[in-house]
Amino acid sequence: MVKAILTDIEGTTSSISFVKDVLFPYAERKIPSFLRRESDRREVIKILKDVEEIEGKELSLEEVIKLLLRWIREDKKITPLKELQGLVWEEGYRKGELRGHIYEDAYEKLKEWHEKGIPIYVYSSGSVKAQKLLFSNTPYGDLTYLFSGYFDTNVGNKKDKDSYLRIARKVGLEPEGILFLSDNPQEIEAAAAAGMRVIRFAREGENEPLPDFPHTQVKSFKEIEAV
Ligand SMILES: [Mg+2]
Question: Per the structure, how many domains does the chain have?
């Protein structure tokens, strides 16, 4: 029996294009002015310090901005960059310039599971802060009540089996009792290797079902019944 759900966001509950075409460009556009305006803020000072530490030298604010924009272009998943993106998104959601995307079928099914008392956890490479923001302001309202917990790469890489063992331990369940949902085949393999049940998402227009993939593949949450 499935005792808990663990779900990815991008390509699973939400469209890949929202993150790629809305969230990331928004952060990229706003980072320079945000840093210039908020450079005295405690969290921002910490981010600037962390960037200097990674580079191993003192940097001016403009140098940090340049470097961060380069990391974005190179798609580097570096902690201070992710934290900064989280702060910029927070402001965007607060101002109403951003609204989190979730597919209707995902919303309906997650709500159904929640009402059945099945705990739902999120595991995404976006920071926990960004995950909560995305679900706090959606076309269906604030959906954070649906989730019992959030995990990001602080718990480990999503393609590493040990991360899933760690999550199982943290939520107090055997991996076998957890159903993991993701569009990424390597994440699916890692979770399966840890003993979790798995379903791979191949949403139309986003991912293709893989031939000979040894695990169940679906296009939508509607196809998931036996939980
Ligand atoms: Mg994904």
Answer: 2
Residues 62-105 have pLDDT tens digits of 999 999 999 988 988 888 998 899 899 999 998 989 999 999 99
14 alpha carbon – ligand 1 mean position (Å): 9
In which residue ranges of the chain is pLDDT below 70?
A: 226
- Distance of CA 12 from the midpoint of ligand 1 (Å): 6
Beta bridge mates, 141: 138
Claim to verify: residue 157 and residue 170 sit in the same structural domain: yes
User: Among 95, 113, 144, which residue terminates a domain?
Assistant: 95
40 and 123 inside one domain:
no
Query: What is the distance in A from the centroid of ligand 1 to the CA of 59?
Result: 34
Q: If you measure from the C-alpha of residue 211 to the centroid of ligand 1, how many angstroms do you get, rounded to a whole number? A: 19
For ligand 1, the distance from its centroid to the CA atom of residue 213, given in whole angstroms, is 17
Q: How far is the CA of 8 from the centre of ligand 1 (A)?
A: 5
Residues 53 and 117 in one domain: no
Task: Kindly give the distance from the C-alpha atom of residue 134 to the centroid of ligand 1, in angstroms, as a whole number.
Answer: 14
